[in-house]
Amino acid sequence: MNSWLCAIDHKRIGILYMLSALLFMLAGGLEAMVMRVQLAAPNLKLIGPETYDQIFTMHGTTMIFLVAMPVLTGFGVYLTPLMIGANEMALPRLGAISFWLQFFGGVLLYFSFATGNAPAAGWFSYAPLSEKAFSPGPGLDYWALALLMIAGSSIGSAINLIVTIATERAPGMTMRLVPMFAWMTLVTSIMIVFALPALVASLVMLLSDRLLHARFFDAAQGGAPLLWQHYFWIFGHPEVYILVLPAFGMISEIIPVFSRKPIFGYPFVATSTVAIAFLSYGVWVHHMFAVALGRNFLAVFAAASMLIAVPTGMKIFSWIATMWGGSIRFTTAMLFAIAFLLEFTVGGLSGVAFATVPVDWQVTDTYFVVAHIHYVLVGGTVFALLAGVHYWFPKFSGHLLDEKLGRWSFWLIVLGFNTTFFVQHFLGLLGMRRRVYTYPDIPWFGALNLISTIGAGILVFGIFIFLCNIGMSLLFGAKAEEDPWNAWTLEWAATSPPALKNFAQPPEVRSRRPLWDRKHPEAPDWLALGRDA
Amino acid sequence: MNDRRNQLGMALFLIAEAVFFLLLILAFIYFRGPAPQGLGLPISFLYTGLLLASTFSMWRAAARGAAWKLWVAITIGLGAVFLLGQGSGYVRLFLDGVAIRQSLFDTTFFTLAGVHALHVLVGLIALAIIPITAIRTMALYWYFFACLWLVIVLVAYAGSVV
Amino acid sequence: MNTWDWQPSVVAACVALAIGYVAIIRKRFPGRPRCLRRMVLFLAGVALLLLDLVSPIDTLADRYLFSAHIIQHFLLALVIPPLFLLGTPRWLAVAALQRTALARVERGLGQPPVSWLLGVGTMLAWHIPLLFNAALENEALHIFQHLSFLVTGVIFWWPILSPLEERHLPMLPAITYLFSACACCSLLGAFLTFGPVGLYPAYLNPPTELWGLDPKSDQRLGGMLMWVPGCFVYLAGILSTLMRWYAPERTA
Asked: Which region, left, alpha or beta, applies to residue A265 given φ > 0 means left and ψ of -120 to 50 means alpha?
């Protein structure tokens, strides 16, 4: 027990992040199910509006800050040193502090339930609702303080990852040769360094207003509630790309291995990632289209928002081109990766729809938004994570997951997810508002909501099967060797699970697929490419 | 090698801090309002000067010569004088009724100055306990917050004069 | 709106530039030019320069719309210099730098910190109300302003787009160079977008209001044009730097 609490080994820290994320996912999932049950039929009053507000606030905050970011960080921290041929992260104690800071931030946030006063202003806590006058209880203070801790944690782990990739690469691994997951992790971490401070600034200003009676967002005193929106979304928009780029990295590792082809157009995928990173700081106003900001202003940001779909689209084509002509192995990991391509594209398309200002004016704050965000975050990030878990689980644990259970969980999750969220596009177009605890008996609202709730039940069942798969595999699963998938990147050269010292000697790296070179000495990558690394 | 890792890490941390303070400074500029009387312009420049002088002693300490501890002590001393001096000025203002709640200028300015002061305090504590191996990394931190204070002073006081 | 301002000096300079360029290329490679793409880029730059200074944009910029003036400067500093640099073949640059005077200038001004400061500094300096308004009133100063944008534009883009590859910054410094310039440009653009109206009084009372743009919307539009499209140019530079960095394997 002690060895886990005091761990600074990056593999332990990675697992801790994943376990913490799992715990908070159960909480966030419970919150989601409470909402879905409450919304299953019109005019239900199973929970009241105040409680409902707390539930959706906690659900959003939990899933983004205590589940998605930590689990992606966990994968990053676990895999990055292995993939670059290093034995440890550059700043191991910073890694440990970052984990515990995040965990205790989550505990602090959930403690607010115990005070009867969880935050209730939405995960983005707009002023002036978040000001003391309108949210007098301590809920938002818990929220802001917890998020300060979590933001600090995130910046710390990002710094750790950047320094690690900059200084710990195996000899021979130039920056051009790093695996795509490591590259995406690097770009994400740089984005975190530039985006999370905006959240910190917003929170400091909010706490000043709430606790010290400052006037940042208090319109009556000359402040500007709009400032909160700007500053929050200057953080918030890059944040959603921070949530999805590591997922892209995982997909970029999984699809090539199960198509038996190297990724198509590595330079394009790598460059388009940087394009997305930069562009993401220039589109935040599209979260504010419904605020009267002036037509020209909106037009410029609408154009930029549409533009950002281009580099993302490039990646989708690249992954498809990777599969094209390859010999596909439909493992569970690959199934989730293919599903990711489809679901994320749907989510991306609904996002581009929002970039059109008049469309946004019609559907903002409706369930169309809820559909969009869940298609990109669940259909995108979570599906990529599920693919990643099925792919790397043998490495983390030394056991193989059961493919049959994997398939069952896959189909249940896909069915459940799409049933839950696809109908929400229609609910949004029909005008159902989000963040309301119940709705009147308008034609179709009841039926579609019921379908959505049933879908949520199926999704939960699918996740349950998935968790059973993990549990049973840990207890009874077949032993995994070093390289069960016949893959090419360096993590598969370590044992399963890796020893405390990942690599007895630094591995030889002359191309992007060092293990391919090792297994195919007659046709190594670096020879085919005809240049020195 | 360790030094390179730590300094890179510190540099990245300071970039994050720069973004954070930039947003606070932009809020200050946005809410540009009339500065209250008695903000203590000349005295502030004295304390600012002392803080900037401490970058010299920090630089001498970072050279890791035989007398590095002495130079660290001087840096801590100058930093402490800065904090106490600026702080006492603000306390006087607070007693006069000028406070963070008082006006937009106060809100934005005191948040900026207060958060900066907290960082200086953390810096002083760190300087008091770090071993010689960490001195170059701490020097980066110290230079950043000294320069940042200069920027804050110029923006705040220039903003109130213009 | 149809007021084309065919200033003889501008027309003559552009035509001379175009003819001179084609002549030099022809002299070196009679018959088919070796790199058609480069010729097209350079001549596009010349055409754009001509349009920028004689088309109605010029009149709009001088007397009607701040945003039109921003477009004009934008082209002068961020679009036309890259086109000129991309259109200059390597052998021409090498030949030009044989002259010691030019070589010395290049060694001095081609240093990234210097070129960055000249490029960014010029942009920031000309938006100081005192200088901007003076240029609107004094024709000679106005010509100097436009020339300065062109010249410092070429200097700024030299470490990124120079025909001499050895003068290019390595990948990471190049990205830092462009990103920091982008940040400055954004800050200025944001300041003009959100800042007080009336910094440039010449636009407060145009002869007629065009396209429903009152002075406030006009200034905001100008700020936004500097901010967002400006960033796109720097971003294009960053992305092309990255693609160039990955190039060794693409050519193999």
From this structure: left
Element holding C186 (H helix, E strand): helix C171-194
Give the three-state DSSP class for C163. coil
| Residue-wise burial string across C42-61, b where 16 or more C-beta atoms lie within 10 A, e elsewhere | bbbbbebbbebbbbebbbbb
- How far CA A241 is from CA of A251, A312, A373, A440, B157, in Å, comes to 15, 10, 12, 36, 38
User: In which residue are the tokens 């203002």 written?
Assistant: B93
Q: How many CB pairs below 8 A link A and B?
A: 88
Q: Are residues A180 and A252 in contact, defined by beta-carbon separation less than 8 angstroms?
A: yes
Torsion sign across C-alpha atoms A24, A30, A36, A39: negative
Q: What is the nearest CA distance from B100 to chain A, expressed in angstroms?
A: 5
Whether A531 and C252 lie within 8 Å, measured CB to CB: yes
Q: Is the pLDDT of residue A213 over 90?
A: no
- Residue C35 pLDDT > 50: yes
A147 vs A167: CA distance, rounded Å: 30
A197 to chain B, any CB pair closer than 8 A? The answer is yes
Instruction: Please name which of A94, C174, A176, A150 lies closest in space to residue B5, comparing C-alpha atoms.
Output: A94
Half-sphere exposure of A458 (CA within 13 A, CB side): 19
pLDDT digits (tens, 9 = 90+) for A38-58: 999 999 999 999 999 999 999
Are A269 and A263 contacting, i.e. CB atoms less than 8 angstroms apart?
yes
pTM of the model: 0.93
Judge whether A368 and A429 are in contact, CB under 8 Å.
yes
Q: Considering only CB atoms, which chain C residues are within 8 Å of A271?
A: 239, 242-243, 246
Between A176, A274, A307, which is nearest C238 by CB? Answer: A274
CA distance A507 to A172: 9
Cross-chain residue pair A270–C224, CB shorter than 8 Å: no
Taking the Cβ of residue B160 and every Cβ of chain A, the question of whether any pair is shorter than 8 Å is answered with: no
pLDDT at C249 over 60: no
CB-based contact C242 A274, cutoff 8 Å: yes
Contact (CB<8Å) A531/C221: no
Chain segment C51-100, per-residue pLDDT in tens: 888 888 888 888 778 888 999 999 999 999 999 999 998 888 888 888 88
Q: CA nearest A386: which of A404, A370, A408, A409?
A: A409
Give bridge partners of residue A366 from the DSSP assignment. A433
- Read off the amino acid at residue A228: W
- Name every residue in A having a CB less than 8 A away from some CB of C: 176, 266-267, 270-271, 274-275, 278-279, 282, 294, 296-297, 300-301, 303-304, 307, 529-531
Give all chains having 3 or more CB-to-CB distances under 8 Å with chain C.
Answer: A
- For the ranges A66-75, A100-109, A303-312, A445-454, the lowest mean pLDDT is seen at A303-312
pLDDT value of position A532? 43
pLDDT in tens, A97-146: 999 999 999 999 999 998 888 999 999 999 899 998 899 989 999 999 99
Q: Provide the shortest C-alpha distance from residue B38 to chain A (in Å).
A: 20
Q: How does C140-171 read in b/e, with b if 16+ C-beta sit within 10 Å?
A: eeeeebbebbbbbbbbbbbbbbbbeeebbbeb
Please tell me which of the candidates A278, A296, A300 has its beta carbon nearest to residue C217.
Answer: A296
Nearest C-alpha in C relative to A296: C221
